[in-house]
Amino acid sequence: MRRLALAGSLATLAACGVSPVSGTTGGAALDGGAGGACPRALAVVDTDYASTNVSLVSPDGQVRSASLVSSASAAPGLTTALSGDVVLPLARPASGEIVLIDRYPNAVLTWLDPATGDVLAQASVATGFSSNPHDYLEVGAHRAYVTRYGANPSPGREPFDEGGDLLVLDTTTHAVTGRVALAQSGDGAYAPHPDRMVRVGGAAWVSLQRFDASFASAADARVVGVDVATDAVRFSLDLPGLANCGSFAASPSGKVVALACSGVLGPHVALDGRSAVVLLDATAEPPVELRRLAVAVALGAPLAPPLAFASEETLVGVAFGDVGGGRSDVAYAVDARTGAVTRLLDAGAAFALGDVRCSPGCSGLCWLADAHSGALRSWDAATTPLAPRDALVVDTAIGLPPRGLGEL
User: Which residue, among 217, 171, 178, 211, has the nearest Cα to 194 in the 3D structure?
Assistant: First the structure.
Protein backbone atom coordinates (compact mmCIF):
# COMPACT_ATOMS: atom_id res chain seq x y z
CA MET A 1 0.00 0.00 0.00
CA ARG A 2 1.38 3.36 -0.97
CA ARG A 3 2.41 6.07 1.48
CA LEU A 4 1.47 9.73 1.04
CA ALA A 5 4.05 12.49 1.38
CA LEU A 6 4.14 14.58 4.57
CA ALA A 7 2.34 17.88 4.16
CA GLY A 8 1.28 18.75 7.73
CA SER A 9 2.75 21.67 9.59
CA LEU A 10 3.27 22.71 13.20
CA ALA A 11 0.82 25.57 12.64
CA THR A 12 -1.88 23.06 11.71
CA LEU A 13 -1.14 21.04 14.83
CA ALA A 14 -1.27 24.11 17.04
CA ALA A 15 -4.67 24.97 15.56
CA CYS A 16 -5.95 21.62 16.86
CA GLY A 17 -5.16 22.72 20.41
CA VAL A 18 -2.30 20.27 21.00
CA SER A 19 1.38 21.08 21.37
CA PRO A 20 3.70 18.97 19.19
CA VAL A 21 5.11 15.95 21.02
CA SER A 22 8.48 14.32 20.61
CA GLY A 23 7.10 11.03 19.36
CA THR A 24 4.53 8.26 19.71
CA THR A 25 4.77 4.94 21.47
CA GLY A 26 4.58 3.15 18.11
CA GLY A 27 2.65 0.09 17.05
CA ALA A 28 2.56 -3.43 18.46
CA ALA A 29 2.73 -6.94 17.05
CA LEU A 30 -0.67 -8.60 17.36
CA ASP A 31 -1.39 -12.28 17.85
CA GLY A 32 -3.16 -14.10 15.03
CA GLY A 33 -3.94 -13.00 11.50
CA ALA A 34 -6.30 -10.31 10.33
CA GLY A 35 -9.86 -11.40 9.64
CA GLY A 36 -9.94 -14.25 12.16
CA ALA A 37 -12.96 -15.20 14.24
CA CYS A 38 -11.79 -13.20 17.24
CA PRO A 39 -10.47 -9.62 17.39
CA ARG A 40 -6.73 -9.24 17.90
CA ALA A 41 -6.94 -5.91 19.73
CA LEU A 42 -9.02 -2.88 20.52
CA ALA A 43 -8.23 0.50 18.99
CA VAL A 44 -9.19 3.34 21.32
CA VAL A 45 -9.91 6.94 20.33
CA ASP A 46 -9.05 9.27 23.19
CA THR A 47 -10.45 12.78 22.68
CA ASP A 48 -11.59 15.96 24.38
CA TYR A 49 -13.33 16.98 21.11
CA ALA A 50 -10.54 19.48 20.41
CA SER A 51 -7.75 16.96 19.84
CA THR A 52 -7.43 13.20 19.43
CA ASN A 53 -5.05 10.38 20.35
CA VAL A 54 -5.27 6.72 19.27
CA SER A 55 -4.25 3.90 21.63
CA LEU A 56 -4.02 0.12 21.21
CA VAL A 57 -5.15 -2.44 23.82
CA SER A 58 -4.98 -6.24 23.79
CA PRO A 59 -8.28 -8.17 24.04
CA ASP A 60 -7.55 -9.06 27.68
CA GLY A 61 -6.80 -5.47 28.68
CA GLN A 62 -3.06 -4.86 28.26
CA VAL A 63 -2.07 -1.44 26.89
CA ARG A 64 0.05 -2.23 23.84
CA SER A 65 0.57 1.36 22.69
CA ALA A 66 -0.58 4.48 24.54
CA SER A 67 -0.22 6.67 21.44
CA LEU A 68 -0.01 5.34 17.90
CA VAL A 69 -0.89 8.72 16.40
CA SER A 70 -2.42 11.94 17.68
CA SER A 71 -3.44 15.45 16.67
CA ALA A 72 0.09 16.46 17.62
CA SER A 73 1.75 13.89 15.34
CA ALA A 74 3.71 14.94 12.29
CA ALA A 75 4.27 11.41 11.00
CA PRO A 76 5.08 10.69 7.36
CA GLY A 77 1.81 10.21 5.50
CA LEU A 78 -0.28 12.34 7.87
CA THR A 79 -1.16 15.12 5.45
CA THR A 80 -4.15 16.28 7.51
CA ALA A 81 -3.76 16.49 11.29
CA LEU A 82 -6.47 14.68 13.25
CA SER A 83 -9.34 16.84 14.46
CA GLY A 84 -11.29 16.30 17.67
CA ASP A 85 -14.14 14.50 15.86
CA VAL A 86 -12.66 11.09 15.06
CA VAL A 87 -14.48 7.74 15.24
CA LEU A 88 -13.67 4.14 14.35
CA PRO A 89 -15.61 1.79 12.05
CA LEU A 90 -18.44 -0.13 13.66
CA ALA A 91 -17.37 -3.37 11.95
CA ARG A 92 -13.86 -4.82 12.24
CA PRO A 93 -11.94 -4.19 8.97
CA ALA A 94 -11.00 -7.51 7.36
CA SER A 95 -7.73 -5.91 6.20
CA GLY A 96 -6.53 -5.71 9.81
CA GLU A 97 -5.74 -2.02 9.43
CA ILE A 98 -6.83 0.73 11.79
CA VAL A 99 -9.15 3.10 9.92
CA LEU A 100 -9.82 6.53 11.44
CA ILE A 101 -12.92 8.41 10.31
CA ASP A 102 -12.29 12.12 10.79
CA ARG A 103 -15.83 13.39 10.49
CA TYR A 104 -16.50 17.13 10.61
CA PRO A 105 -15.20 19.32 9.10
CA ASN A 106 -12.23 17.31 7.78
CA ALA A 107 -14.11 14.43 6.04
CA VAL A 108 -10.88 12.45 5.83
CA LEU A 109 -10.09 8.73 6.27
CA THR A 110 -6.71 7.64 7.66
CA TRP A 111 -5.34 4.08 7.41
CA LEU A 112 -2.77 2.96 10.02
CA ASP A 113 -0.61 -0.15 10.33
CA PRO A 114 -1.23 -1.38 13.90
CA ALA A 115 2.09 -3.27 13.98
CA THR A 116 4.19 -0.16 13.34
CA GLY A 117 1.86 2.79 13.90
CA ASP A 118 2.75 4.00 10.38
CA VAL A 119 0.27 6.07 8.41
CA LEU A 120 -0.43 4.04 5.28
CA ALA A 121 -2.66 6.55 3.50
CA GLN A 122 -5.17 9.35 3.86
CA ALA A 123 -8.09 10.10 1.57
CA SER A 124 -10.68 12.86 1.48
CA VAL A 125 -14.34 11.91 1.07
CA ALA A 126 -15.50 15.53 1.02
CA THR A 127 -15.97 15.96 -2.76
CA GLY A 128 -16.27 19.71 -2.35
CA PHE A 129 -18.29 19.98 0.89
CA SER A 130 -18.09 18.91 4.55
CA SER A 131 -19.68 15.51 3.98
CA ASN A 132 -19.36 14.29 7.60
CA PRO A 133 -18.52 10.59 7.06
CA HIS A 134 -19.90 8.36 9.84
CA ASP A 135 -18.79 4.81 9.05
CA TYR A 136 -16.49 2.64 6.93
CA LEU A 137 -17.17 -0.97 5.93
CA GLU A 138 -14.84 -3.18 3.89
CA VAL A 139 -17.01 -5.19 1.50
CA GLY A 140 -14.34 -6.90 -0.63
CA ALA A 141 -10.61 -7.40 -0.97
CA HIS A 142 -10.22 -3.94 -2.49
CA ARG A 143 -13.58 -2.24 -1.87
CA ALA A 144 -15.18 -0.36 0.98
CA TYR A 145 -18.29 1.70 1.65
CA VAL A 146 -18.34 5.03 3.49
CA THR A 147 -21.57 6.54 4.85
CA ARG A 148 -21.75 10.30 4.36
CA TYR A 149 -24.14 11.85 6.86
CA GLY A 150 -24.14 15.32 5.33
CA ALA A 151 -26.01 16.41 2.20
CA ASN A 152 -24.56 18.93 -0.25
CA PRO A 153 -26.87 21.94 -0.68
CA SER A 154 -25.23 22.79 -4.03
CA PRO A 155 -24.31 19.53 -5.80
CA GLY A 156 -23.15 19.11 -9.38
CA ARG A 157 -19.75 20.79 -9.18
CA GLU A 158 -17.67 17.63 -8.64
CA PRO A 159 -18.19 13.92 -9.28
CA PHE A 160 -20.06 12.10 -6.50
CA ASP A 161 -20.77 15.34 -4.60
CA GLU A 162 -24.42 14.86 -3.62
CA GLY A 163 -23.92 13.46 -0.10
CA GLY A 164 -26.49 11.58 1.98
CA ASP A 165 -25.11 8.41 0.41
CA LEU A 166 -22.61 5.57 0.36
CA LEU A 167 -19.33 6.27 -1.37
CA VAL A 168 -17.56 3.30 -2.92
CA LEU A 169 -13.80 3.31 -2.35
CA ASP A 170 -10.98 1.39 -3.99
CA THR A 171 -8.90 0.50 -0.92
CA THR A 172 -5.76 -0.04 -3.00
CA THR A 173 -5.68 3.44 -4.54
CA HIS A 174 -7.97 5.04 -1.91
CA ALA A 175 -9.92 6.66 -4.74
CA VAL A 176 -13.68 7.15 -4.91
CA THR A 177 -15.07 4.90 -7.64
CA GLY A 178 -18.82 5.17 -7.16
CA ARG A 179 -21.80 6.27 -5.14
CA VAL A 180 -25.00 4.63 -3.87
CA ALA A 181 -27.88 7.12 -3.55
CA LEU A 182 -30.01 6.55 -0.45
CA ALA A 183 -32.67 9.25 -0.80
CA GLN A 184 -36.07 8.01 -2.01
CA SER A 185 -38.96 9.66 -3.75
CA GLY A 186 -41.50 10.75 -1.19
CA ASP A 187 -38.91 11.59 1.47
CA GLY A 188 -39.88 15.25 1.25
CA ALA A 189 -37.96 17.42 3.71
CA TYR A 190 -36.29 14.44 5.37
CA ALA A 191 -32.73 13.77 4.17
CA PRO A 192 -31.37 10.20 4.58
CA HIS A 193 -28.49 11.00 6.99
CA PRO A 194 -26.91 7.52 6.79
CA ASP A 195 -25.05 6.55 9.95
CA ARG A 196 -23.67 3.09 10.74
CA MET A 197 -23.36 -0.16 8.75
CA VAL A 198 -23.27 -3.89 9.42
CA ARG A 199 -22.56 -6.75 7.01
CA VAL A 200 -25.31 -9.39 6.83
CA GLY A 201 -24.56 -12.06 4.22
CA GLY A 202 -24.21 -10.40 0.83
CA ALA A 203 -25.69 -7.09 1.95
CA ALA A 204 -24.52 -4.05 3.86
CA TRP A 205 -27.26 -2.84 6.17
CA VAL A 206 -27.30 0.94 6.58
CA SER A 207 -29.17 2.89 9.26
CA LEU A 208 -30.84 6.08 8.00
CA GLN A 209 -31.74 8.69 10.63
CA ARG A 210 -33.94 10.83 8.32
CA PHE A 211 -33.91 14.31 9.90
CA ASP A 212 -35.19 17.54 8.42
CA ALA A 213 -32.86 20.53 7.96
CA SER A 214 -33.48 21.79 11.50
CA PHE A 215 -32.85 18.38 13.16
CA ALA A 216 -35.91 19.16 15.28
CA SER A 217 -38.08 16.66 13.40
CA ALA A 218 -37.41 13.13 12.13
CA ALA A 219 -39.33 10.72 9.95
CA ASP A 220 -39.52 7.04 10.87
CA ALA A 221 -36.10 5.43 11.00
CA ARG A 222 -35.14 3.27 8.04
CA VAL A 223 -32.77 0.36 7.36
CA VAL A 224 -31.54 -0.08 3.80
CA GLY A 225 -29.74 -3.16 2.47
CA VAL A 226 -27.16 -2.65 -0.27
CA ASP A 227 -25.83 -5.56 -2.36
CA VAL A 228 -22.06 -5.55 -1.85
CA ALA A 229 -21.45 -7.15 -5.26
CA THR A 230 -23.57 -4.81 -7.39
CA ASP A 231 -23.99 -1.70 -5.16
CA ALA A 232 -27.75 -1.93 -5.77
CA VAL A 233 -30.29 -1.33 -3.02
CA ARG A 234 -31.87 -4.73 -2.21
CA PHE A 235 -34.42 -3.67 0.40
CA SER A 236 -35.70 -0.72 2.38
CA LEU A 237 -37.38 -1.23 5.76
CA ASP A 238 -39.06 1.57 7.69
CA LEU A 239 -39.37 1.23 11.48
CA PRO A 240 -42.68 2.92 12.34
CA GLY A 241 -42.60 5.02 15.50
CA LEU A 242 -38.81 4.85 15.93
CA ALA A 243 -36.45 7.75 15.22
CA ASN A 244 -32.75 8.54 15.10
CA CYS A 245 -31.51 4.94 15.06
CA GLY A 246 -27.74 4.63 14.95
CA SER A 247 -25.55 1.70 15.86
CA PHE A 248 -26.17 -1.94 14.90
CA ALA A 249 -25.16 -5.00 16.90
CA ALA A 250 -25.13 -8.54 15.51
CA SER A 251 -25.78 -11.48 17.86
CA PRO A 252 -23.04 -14.15 18.17
CA SER A 253 -25.09 -16.50 15.96
CA GLY A 254 -25.66 -13.77 13.38
CA LYS A 255 -29.37 -14.53 13.38
CA VAL A 256 -30.44 -11.32 15.12
CA VAL A 257 -29.36 -7.73 14.54
CA ALA A 258 -30.21 -5.11 17.17
CA LEU A 259 -30.45 -1.38 16.58
CA ALA A 260 -30.40 1.37 19.23
CA CYS A 261 -32.72 4.32 18.57
CA SER A 262 -32.36 7.64 20.43
CA GLY A 263 -35.56 9.42 19.41
CA VAL A 264 -35.53 13.14 18.66
CA LEU A 265 -33.22 14.77 21.20
CA GLY A 266 -33.74 18.29 22.48
CA PRO A 267 -34.22 20.40 25.61
CA HIS A 268 -37.34 18.45 26.61
CA VAL A 269 -37.08 14.84 25.41
CA ALA A 270 -40.35 12.91 25.44
CA LEU A 271 -39.97 9.20 26.16
CA ASP A 272 -42.75 8.41 23.72
CA GLY A 273 -41.46 5.15 22.33
CA ARG A 274 -39.29 6.69 19.58
CA SER A 275 -36.24 5.68 21.63
CA ALA A 276 -35.92 1.92 22.07
CA VAL A 277 -33.86 -1.12 21.09
CA VAL A 278 -35.33 -2.97 18.11
CA LEU A 279 -34.46 -6.58 17.26
CA LEU A 280 -34.49 -7.67 13.61
CA ASP A 281 -34.48 -11.17 12.13
CA ALA A 282 -31.31 -11.27 10.04
CA THR A 283 -32.25 -14.59 8.43
CA ALA A 284 -35.00 -12.90 6.39
CA GLU A 285 -34.73 -10.38 3.58
CA PRO A 286 -36.04 -7.82 4.03
CA PRO A 287 -35.51 -8.33 7.75
CA VAL A 288 -38.52 -8.84 9.99
CA GLU A 289 -38.94 -6.97 13.26
CA LEU A 290 -38.92 -9.44 16.14
CA ARG A 291 -39.57 -7.17 19.11
CA ARG A 292 -38.86 -3.80 20.69
CA LEU A 293 -37.22 -3.42 24.08
CA ALA A 294 -38.48 -0.40 26.04
CA VAL A 295 -35.10 0.31 27.62
CA ALA A 296 -35.47 4.11 27.45
CA VAL A 297 -38.73 4.01 29.40
CA ALA A 298 -37.22 1.67 32.00
CA LEU A 299 -34.22 3.96 32.52
CA GLY A 300 -36.09 7.24 32.15
CA ALA A 301 -33.58 8.41 29.55
CA PRO A 302 -33.12 8.31 25.76
CA LEU A 303 -30.70 5.72 24.45
CA ALA A 304 -27.28 6.53 23.04
CA PRO A 305 -26.17 4.72 19.87
CA PRO A 306 -23.56 2.28 21.32
CA LEU A 307 -24.84 -1.29 21.58
CA ALA A 308 -23.27 -4.77 21.67
CA PHE A 309 -24.29 -8.36 22.33
CA ALA A 310 -22.59 -9.79 25.43
CA SER A 311 -24.24 -13.14 24.62
CA GLU A 312 -27.07 -14.40 22.46
CA GLU A 313 -29.51 -13.26 25.17
CA THR A 314 -27.89 -10.10 26.61
CA LEU A 315 -27.22 -6.69 25.11
CA VAL A 316 -25.08 -3.92 26.62
CA GLY A 317 -25.62 -0.25 25.81
CA VAL A 318 -25.65 3.33 27.05
CA ALA A 319 -28.39 5.84 27.92
CA PHE A 320 -27.86 9.59 27.66
CA GLY A 321 -27.58 11.84 30.68
CA ASP A 322 -28.85 15.41 30.87
CA VAL A 323 -26.57 18.25 31.93
CA GLY A 324 -29.43 20.63 32.69
CA GLY A 325 -31.48 17.99 34.45
CA GLY A 326 -28.64 16.65 36.56
CA ARG A 327 -28.93 13.13 35.12
CA SER A 328 -25.78 11.11 34.42
CA ASP A 329 -25.11 8.68 31.59
CA VAL A 330 -25.94 5.09 32.46
CA ALA A 331 -24.55 1.83 31.11
CA TYR A 332 -27.15 -0.94 31.01
CA ALA A 333 -27.67 -4.59 30.19
CA VAL A 334 -30.97 -5.79 28.75
CA ASP A 335 -32.31 -9.31 28.30
CA ALA A 336 -33.20 -9.68 24.62
CA ARG A 337 -35.93 -12.23 25.46
CA THR A 338 -37.72 -10.55 28.35
CA GLY A 339 -36.69 -6.90 28.07
CA ALA A 340 -35.53 -6.85 31.71
CA VAL A 341 -33.06 -3.99 32.23
CA THR A 342 -30.08 -3.90 34.62
CA ARG A 343 -28.05 -0.78 35.42
CA LEU A 344 -24.34 -1.56 35.11
CA LEU A 345 -22.76 1.84 35.77
CA ASP A 346 -23.68 5.42 36.61
CA ALA A 347 -21.04 7.57 34.91
CA GLY A 348 -21.34 10.47 37.36
CA ALA A 349 -21.66 12.91 34.45
CA ALA A 350 -23.63 13.43 31.24
CA PHE A 351 -22.17 12.79 27.78
CA ALA A 352 -19.34 10.80 29.33
CA LEU A 353 -19.89 7.22 28.15
CA GLY A 354 -18.81 6.27 24.64
CA ASP A 355 -18.53 3.11 22.58
CA VAL A 356 -19.24 -0.45 23.73
CA ARG A 357 -17.53 -3.57 22.37
CA CYS A 358 -18.14 -7.17 23.49
CA SER A 359 -16.38 -10.38 22.43
CA PRO A 360 -18.55 -13.35 23.42
CA GLY A 361 -16.78 -16.62 22.68
CA CYS A 362 -13.42 -14.85 22.44
CA SER A 363 -12.07 -12.75 25.32
CA GLY A 364 -15.49 -12.99 26.96
CA LEU A 365 -15.28 -9.32 27.95
CA CYS A 366 -17.39 -6.25 27.32
CA TRP A 367 -15.52 -2.93 27.13
CA LEU A 368 -16.96 0.58 27.59
CA ALA A 369 -15.19 3.91 27.05
CA ASP A 370 -15.73 6.17 30.09
CA ALA A 371 -14.47 9.70 29.51
CA HIS A 372 -15.53 10.92 32.98
CA SER A 373 -13.18 8.47 34.74
CA GLY A 374 -10.62 8.69 31.93
CA ALA A 375 -10.54 4.90 31.63
CA LEU A 376 -12.03 1.85 29.97
CA ARG A 377 -14.59 -0.05 32.02
CA SER A 378 -15.04 -3.77 31.48
CA TRP A 379 -17.29 -6.64 32.53
CA ASP A 380 -17.00 -10.42 32.39
CA ALA A 381 -19.79 -11.29 29.97
CA ALA A 382 -19.75 -14.97 30.94
CA THR A 383 -21.29 -14.23 34.34
CA THR A 384 -24.91 -13.49 35.27
CA PRO A 385 -25.20 -10.67 36.09
CA LEU A 386 -22.19 -9.25 34.26
CA ALA A 387 -19.27 -8.94 36.71
CA PRO A 388 -17.29 -5.66 36.69
CA ARG A 389 -13.48 -5.68 36.41
CA ASP A 390 -10.85 -3.07 37.23
CA ALA A 391 -10.84 0.14 35.18
CA LEU A 392 -8.00 0.55 32.66
CA VAL A 393 -6.29 3.85 31.81
CA VAL A 394 -5.07 3.60 28.21
CA ASP A 395 -3.77 7.06 27.23
CA THR A 396 -0.79 7.47 29.51
CA ALA A 397 1.10 9.50 26.89
CA ILE A 398 -1.13 12.58 26.43
CA GLY A 399 -3.89 12.05 28.96
CA LEU A 400 -6.99 12.40 26.79
CA PRO A 401 -10.16 10.55 27.86
CA PRO A 402 -11.33 7.48 25.90
CA ARG A 403 -14.54 7.76 23.91
CA GLY A 404 -14.29 5.55 20.79
CA LEU A 405 -13.63 1.82 20.47
CA GLY A 406 -12.99 -0.34 17.43
CA GLU A 407 -11.89 -3.93 16.90
CA LEU A 408 -8.91 -5.18 14.88
Answer: 211
Q: Enumerate the β-bridge partners of residue 375.
A: 370
- Cα 344 to Cα 297, 325, 335, 374: the distances in Å are 16, 21, 13, 17
DSSP state of 299: H
> b/e per residue, 128-142, with b = 16+ CB within 10 A?
bbbbbbbbbbbbeee
Asked whether this chain's domains 80-240 and 244-391 adopt the same fold, the reply is yes
Asked if 91 and 113 count as a contact pair (C-beta separation under 8 A), the reply is: no
Instruction: Give the residues across from 218 on adjacent strands.
Output: 211
pLDDT digits (tens, 9 = 90+) for 39-92: 999 999 999 999 999 999 999 999 999 999 999 876 767 778 899 999 999 999
Q: What is the pLDDT of residues 309-351, one digit of tens each?
A: 999 999 999 999 998 888 999 999 999 999 999 999 999 999 9
With 0-12 / 13-18 / 19 or more C-beta atoms within 10 angstroms meaning exposed / middle / buried, residue 252 is: middle
- In a 13 Å sphere around the CA of 334, the CA atoms on its Cβ side amount to 30
Q: Where are the domains of the chain?
A: 80-240, 244-391
User: CA 51, CA 183: separation in Å to the nearest integer?
Assistant: 33
Which helix (H) or strand (E) covers residue 279, if one does?
strand 275-281
DSSP lists the bridge partners of residue 335 as 314
H/E segment holding residue 314? strand 314-319
CATH of domain 80-240: 2.120.10.30
CATH ID of 244-391, from 1.10.3720.10, 2.120.10.30, 2.40.37.10, 3.40.30.10: 2.120.10.30
